[in-house]
Amino acid sequence: MSKGPSRIAEFIKKALFIDFVKGLSITLKYNVSRSITLKYPDEEKWVPDRRFRGQHTLNKDENGRELCVACELCAKVCPTKCITVIPMEDDTGRGIADRVAKVWKVELARCMFCGYCEDACPTRAVRLGRDYELACLDLSCTTREKDELLKPQSIPETIQGGFVVRSKFERTPEGIRVVPDLRMQKKRNI
Amino acid sequence: MPDLATLLEILIIVVKVSVISGILFSLPLPLTWIERKVAGHIQVRLGPWRVGPHGVLQPFADMVKLLIKEDIVPDRADKFLFKLAPLLSMIPAFLVFVAIPFGEKFAIPFVGKEITLYLSDMNVGILYILAIGGLGIYGMILGGWASNSKYSLLGGLRSSAQMISYEISMSFAAIGVVMLTNSLNLLEMVRSQSGSFLDWNIFYLPVGPVWFVIFIIAALAEINRIPFDLPEDEGTLAAGFHTEYSGMRFSFFMLAEYVAMVTISVLTVIMFFGGWNPPLDISIFHLVPSIFWFLGKVILFIYFFMWLRFTLPRYRYDQLMTIGWKVLIPLSLVNILVTGLMII
Ligand code: SF4
Ligand code: SF4
User: What are B64-110's pLDDT values in tens digits?
Assistant: First the structure.
């Protein structure tokens, strides 16, 4: 008995294509909505938030000394064992202590960007930066050595991130690069 | 020696035929672009973007790609039928346009000669279109069979079953319209709907909308568009009957499909939406040439089909058959009865 009216309602719903019209109206709305696809890389590029975990970077302190004391904690804690640290004695003032890393390299092909290494680091030397264009043609380039990691990040810490900026495509002798226009030309948030 | 008037007539017909076939052959170019754009925007992405402004040249790139692609004929396929099948599905799709009127008459300025905007004023136009349109199944079955592949064969069989089932309800819907307009002639059909939009067949209450729904569902199944595109159900059948086709031969099937979509839009407009009659019988609307009203409506319907495609999921095969045999055909029969009672 109680099922009667609902069945009739169901039938009317079907006969008048109510659900169908609802579906159509939703897709129509999407049709005029803004697309979320970026015109990457030659027109737009996403600048990640500061919390983003991209390629590693090794920091220096304000006097330009290396913060890493080669304690190997990051190598120990790393779940995929992709960091190699070999310490050495050096009292020339290159690092903040006499112990600095002779070798500090990370295998990005194995890294899963969990961020445990930066958590474990006692001196805040290693940080996961904001570079995410890591693709290359062979596996040799997936290893990042210390010299490379010590270079300043391509996106400065001062920039908040989390938005899309204009960018352009540049051919350099080393390969093709995407150059973001970081003068805070905020195109849109995503 | 034929006189000048006859020669002129022949010339006009030749020009009309070449214009229509030219348009039909180049149809996939704008339609694929629009379809991909509509798909992109409905799915909150951009669609083609790189080739030309907003990707308008993308179809040309695709065309070049299809033309220079390797043309593969499977090893133990029936070579003759395999090559014949795409033509068999394309030619009927084109032949249909012999009977389709695009407008009444058009006066060429300065010459004082009127040309008709149709190739032939067929008395049994609608019958001809349904009959010839149905021939396209041959291409699908033969293509599926000749490929010597299980997927293609199943796809071909599926499509034949589907098309035969839905041909029935589509013809019933056509019968309904014939009953309402008292003629099998497409020109007459449009003439009988002249006036404001309330004179259109779709507003012939209560049966008009029902005929329209039956027709549109059956037609969607007939031209294999989502939600009824079971012949090329990639989840279960790879690409269905044209799995083994590549390059130009594949694009013939695609061409046939797009032309069929246009045919159905044109038919819907002629049968239910007053053809080239403007929506209101006021003089401003009559200033616009009737062909624009016609094309406008057709374009709206083409858009509607694309919109539908990216809204609905595909039906299961048994659901498709259930809808065809248990819903559409009984509904058409009842509707014929009601229509008959109404026009007595
Ligand atoms: S992010 Fe995780 S996986 Fe990658 S190096 Fe650091 S600890 Fe290892
Ligand atoms: S990066 Fe940090 S954790 Fe790793 S070796 Fe250097 S100081 Fe230790």
Answer: 888 888 888 888 888 888 888 888 888 888 888 888 888 777 777 66
For residue B49, give the chain A residue with the closest CA.
A39
Q: Which residues contact A49 (CB under 8 A, 6 or more apart)?
A: A160, A161, A162
Instruction: Say yes or no: CB of residue A108 within 6 Å of ligand 2.
Output: no
- Which residue carries 């009865």 as its tokens? B337
Specify whether the CB–CB gap between A74 and A188 falls below 8 A.
Answer: no
Q: Which of A51, A60, A65 is nearest to A126 (CA)?
A: A60
For the stretch A114-162, pLDDT in tens is 999 999 999 989 988 888 888 888 888 888 899 888 888 888 878 887 7
- Phi–psi pair at A95, nearest 5 degrees: -110, 180
For residue A4, the surrounding DSSP H or E stretch is helix A3-15
Which of A31, A34, A164 should one mutate to test binding to chain B, selecting the residue with the greatest count of B CBs within 10 A? A31
Instruction: Please count the other Cβ atoms lying within 10 Å of the Cβ belonging to residue B43.
Output: 16
Calculate the average pLDDT of chain B.
Answer: 84
CB neighbours of B271 closer than 8 A, spacing ≥ 6? B126, B173, B174, B177, B189, B201, B215
Choice from A112, A118, A124, A126 to test ligand 1 binding pocket (greatest atom count within 8 A of CB): A112
Residues 6+ apart with CB under 8 A from B47: B36, B37, B38, B39, B40, B41, B55
Alpha-carbon distance B222 to B208, whole Å? 21
Segment 190-219 of chain B within 8 Å of chain A by CB: 213
ipTM surpasses 0.90 = no
Residues A3-61 have pLDDT tens digits of: 566 888 888 887 778 888 888 888 888 888 788 888 888 888 888 888 889 889 998 88
